[in-house]
Each structure stands twice: as structure tokens, then as C-alpha cells.
Amino acid sequence: MAEKNVVQTIHDTLWEEMKADDRVVVLGEDVGARGGVFRATADFLQEFGEMRVIDTPLAESSIVGVAIGMSLHGLLPVAEIQFADFIHPAYDQIVSEAARIRYRSNGDFGCPIVIRAPYGGGVHGALYHSQSIEATYGHVPGLKVVVPSTPHDAKGLLRAAIRDPDPVLFLEHKKTYRLIKGEVPDEPYEIPIGVAEVKRTGEDLTVISYGLMLHHCMEAAGRLQEEEGMSAEVVDVRTIAPLDRGTILDSVRKTAKAMVVYEDNRTYGAGAEIAATIAEELMFDLDGPIVRLAGPDIPAMPFSGPLEHRFMLDAEKIYERMAELARF
Catalytic annotation on 129? Predict the structure, then answer.
């Protein structure tokens, strides 16, 4: 075991995968000489060479398009989008090509690519460096969307993503990169894509979340136990698509109350799908309303510190709604 933060875990896991399999290549803007803006590929160019660590032009559509071509010729490309906000020029390549290759070829071809993208706010990134994109791409059949919350999960899920025969969008909340630390086993392991995890057991309500918000939920749940004497079960979905409905429903069935917390805009967010699933399956098991706590429906995250704080959820805001639902 070694204690690592999230970005160091991403770096080390990619390094191990490239050492183990010559088919694994990385490509993206500034991933080579600079080692990426977050240093996730630091020293990769010196170790693996420019044939496997490829600095690309500032053209996200071509980054994903080239990765698709590589995958069709036997490579296992890991494409980095410098910030999730920049991914939209590649939308057609991801949605119309990568996600549909297996279907359109009647199963003859897969598209084993991983697209890494740091997402989320709280770092004063403003309009073009703070977006949450999971709902947009979680809607696309044929595309897996993975959102690890801890270093341990980041390693296991990234290994699973590289080995997956179909495209995986791997979203890393940039504020967790150096903030969140945890023990990571030295030996290789995988965490299956599409399996949620109960991070904290409880009896009085279920709180479902992912990414940075998962950690705020855990802090709020601890305060709920201490101040109110009530226990919240916290579920980390870990994968937006496919969604582990079973783990979520089992937890809500036990506690009879559900709260979904996510950073993205509230309307049509990933939490709306989770809430709808709970309502559809467990209407007569619930003892309270399904609560959605999310970001406001405004076009972008403000740069201003006070306004950014107003947009972002934190443990205090989550605790207030959690306690209200627990008392209902």
C-alpha cells in the first residue's frame, strides 16, 4: 500500500499499463514534453518515446478521430482532453463514430479507446474550465462514462477502462487531483465498470453521489450522525453509464429515503435519471420525497470567488438538506 492523491494514481496506473503492454499509447495536447497541464503524463515522453506519447494539435475532433483509427488497427489509445470543456468539438467522433462502431459493424469491430478528461469546478476556472459533462455523454448508448472519486477507485477503474473492448469516457474531477488522498495497493487490480459502492452504511436515508460531491456527502453524513444521531448511507455510483441500479435501489429500499447530489446543472442532470429510477421502482417503499441537490441552471460557472461558491455545493449545504430529509 502507498498513500497517493488522485492525479499521482492516474500517472502511475498509466505508466504501469504502458510498461505492461506495448499497444497502450497516450495522445493529446501537451501530454509529451510538458507532461500534461496537470502532470498526469510527466516523464512519459522520455520513458516511452514519441511513437507512444504523442503531442497533438489543438484539435479535439482529430485527437478522438486518430484514437479511433488506432483502436481499429490493434492499439489501445488513451486520449487526453486537456479540459472536459474542450471536448465538444469531438462530439461527433465520440457519439456518431466511437459509440456506434460495434453496432454498425454487427459486432465485427470494437473501439477500445479511453478518453480522459478533467471536469468540474471549484478551482476558479470560470466558463471554459469548470464544466460537468457526464449527463451529455451518459445519454449515449455504446459509450461508458466512468467517474472515480478516490485514488483507489481511479486505479482499478482506469485499468478496467483500458481493457474494455468499447469506448470509455473517463472523467476525473480536477479538484480531487491533489486534494483527495488514499491508500492504493501496489499490485494490479481492476474494478468492474458499472458497479457502484456503498462508501458508508446507514439506516435513515440514502445519499447517492459521485466525484468531488461524494466527499462532501461523506463529511455531511458524519455531521448528521454526530449532531442528529441519524445515519446516512452514502452510495458512490462510480459509473454514470452503465448505472448500477441494483445497488442504488437496494440501499433506498432499506432506508426508504433518497437524496441525489451532483455538481452539474440540476435540470436533466445525471441525478435526474437516478431520481426517476428510484421513483419508478420504489414509489411505495419511500417515506419521503426524492431530493435532488445540484448546481443551478445557469450557463456557466462564474469566475468571481463568491459567485463560484454560490454555484458549488459543499458539505454545509448538503448537510442542511440531508438533515431536513432525515427528519421528514
Answer: yes
